[in-house]
Amino acid sequence: MRPPPPGLDLLAGAVDGHVHACPHINGRRLDVFEAVREAAAAGMAGLGLMDNFANSSGIAALAMRELGHLGVEVFGGLIMEPPAGGVSAEAARIALAYGYGAGTGARFLSLPTHHTRHVARQEHRSPLHVEACFAVPESGPLPDPLPEILDLCAAHDVVFNLGHVADAEAVRLAEEAKARGVARILFPTNHAAPEAVAAVVAAGGHVEFSFFFVSHATAVGLTHVDSEKHTIAASGVGDMVARIAAAPPERVILSSDCGVCLLPPPVEGLRCFLMLLEAAGVPRQVLTQAVRDNPRRLFRISAPSPAQNP
Hints:
Helices cover 37% and strands 12% of the residues. By secondary structure, the chain is α/β, with parallel strands linked by helices. The strands form 3 sheets. It has a 6-stranded parallel beta sheet with strand order 4-5-6-7-8-11.
């Protein structure tokens, strides 16, 4: 019998808050039920489902009804892309209540990850497309409905994900969120400058680093939100390690961002990511904190229970 692969022990009690196993317009590596079973077999505590086309809270609630006995807490939320209702307070309110009763609504509300001017410019989209995408003004009041969305995050104590915005936008959003009482802030930080990382952390935020951005999936054009295929700029491992070191260990989140057919399943992707970071010099204690303790606290995940018949 072969010994378990190295790094599997790091997944015990871990939470991967960035899994793309929901239905999509391009190929997926696995479905949600398969993702939950594989996470349970690895002894993980939680999975966060992300979906560019719909509020994923309903699928998460269904997964918990069917596979909750395996001991993996599955949660969802809303990425406010146009197909999912856009940046809308009404869509946010629905997401927070969507599921099978109390406790099954959204655990996060995210600004767009692709329909932002920051990303649209990187993808060389048309001027008309860029103009229609989400952006944060440099000064003045935040435009509606952002204040109401921040207030909903504060009132429901859910994570406000800053989405894929420029550094200056992320810093302003984090500071405004803190001022309005949002206690859970998450910044996808794979390309952010150290100064932006520090500013978001100072506002009480966590910073997220994902396997996708150091993987081979960045080398080819993929369809993420529409029929156009675009590459995503890779993050060098050394640069990512430096960004991780620039943040306090208790504010770092590590995730797989797996689910696309080109990548391994999320459990294997997360294991590979942790091994890669350890080989590049990230201490094991930091890895454990960033993949287990921090996301469990951020997403309000219960202590894991033993899996039954994964």
